[in-house]
Amino acid sequence: MLTFEQAIADSAQFSKRHLLLGNGFSIACRSEIFHYGSLYDQADFSRAPEIEAVFAALGTKDFEAVIRTLESAAIVLPTYVADDGAAPAKMLEHAEMLKEILVQTIAGNHPHLPSDIPDEKFWACRRFLSHFLVGEKAGCVFTLNYDLLLYWTLMHEDSPLGEAISLARSDGFGNDEDEPDADYVVWQGETNAHSANVMFLHGALHLFDSGKDLLKYTWIRKGVPLIEQARAALSANKFPLFVAEGTSTQKKDKIRHIAYLYQGLKQLTSNVTQGKHCWFIFGHSLAANDDHILTRIGRGRFKKLYVGIYGDPQEIWNEQIIARAGWLASLRNEKWPLEVEFYQAESAQVWG
Description:
This protein has 352 residues and is α/β, with parallel strands linked by helices. It has 2 domains: 4-32 and 113-348, no CATH class; 39-107. Helix content is 42%, strand content 15%. It is built from 14 helices and 11 strands. It has helices spanning 4-10, 23-27, 39-42, 49-58, 63-80, 86-107, 119-133, 149-155, 190-193, 226-235, 248-256, 259-272, 291-298, 316-330, and strands at 16-21, 138-143, 173-174, 184-187, 198-200, 203-209, 214-217, 239-242, 277-282, 304-309, 339-344.
C-alpha cells in the first residue's frame, strides 16, 4: 500500500481532491468514547420500558419520531379515552424523559468542550484537512459523522504549535436576517449552498431543526458544554439534525425529506461526476448501510479513488473493505473506469 503522503503526491495529477470521512476519523481521535454504535442500543430506557414499546410499534429507532408521536398523541387521546388525562400526562412525561435520555446518550459519546481535545490534535487535523481545503487542488470535505470534531477543527484557527493553517471553509450558513446577533446562524438554502465545500451528509449535533429554519448553533464558541446545548435546544422543541440509525434505504428516505441533507447529497453527486477530480476516503468501512452514498461514488466519472486501510490488509475487516472497493469499481460505466488505490490510514496521522 501507499503511504498517505505518497497518495497525495500521486493525486497531484488531478485538478481537485475531495474527501469523504467515516467513523474512523473520530475514533482515531478518542477511541474510548466514539463507539458509533446505535444510539438506541446504548440508551437506557429502564425508567420507562413503555418507551421501547413505542419504538417497536412505530418500527423505528429515530428518537425525534417517537418524541413527536408521544406529544401528538397526548393532544388527541383525550378525545377518545376518558381517563382524566392520566395517559396523556404520562405520554408527555415520557416524551420529556426521552429527550433527556437522548441528551445523556449523546453526551456519553462525545467530549463536552473543544478544550477537552489537546491543541496538538487540532493542529494535526488541520494539517491533514489542508490537502483538501487549501490551494488550487482544494475540493470539498464530506463527512458521514454527526459529532462535532470536524466542526471544532475548522473553527480552531489559532495554531500555537506551528504556522497557522488557513482552511477554506464554507457550509452554506449565514446570519439570520431577523436576528443578526443571535447565537446561531441559519442555512441560507439551496441557492447559496452551491459554494459550500464542507457538508455534513448525515447532519450534526450543532445543527437543529426549529421547524421554520435549520439552525447552526455557535454556542460552543462561548464555552457552553455540548450537553447543555442539546438540552436547551430540545426544551425549545428544536431537534438535532442527524441521521444515525437505520438501513441505507431508511437513511436515504430521511435525507430526501430534508433540504439541507438532500443538497449535500446533490453536492456529492455533482463532484463525483467530474472526470478530472479524485477522491479520498478515510475512516470508512464501505459498509452497506451507507450504500446511498457509496453507489453514487461507484457510478461517478472521476478516475481514481484512494481508500484508507488501517492495520494489516489481510485482516478480515480489511479484506471486506478491499472487496467492497472492488464492487464500487464494478459499478462504473466502461467509458469511465475507476482505479482504486489503497493507502495506510495510520500514515495520515490525522490527529497527530
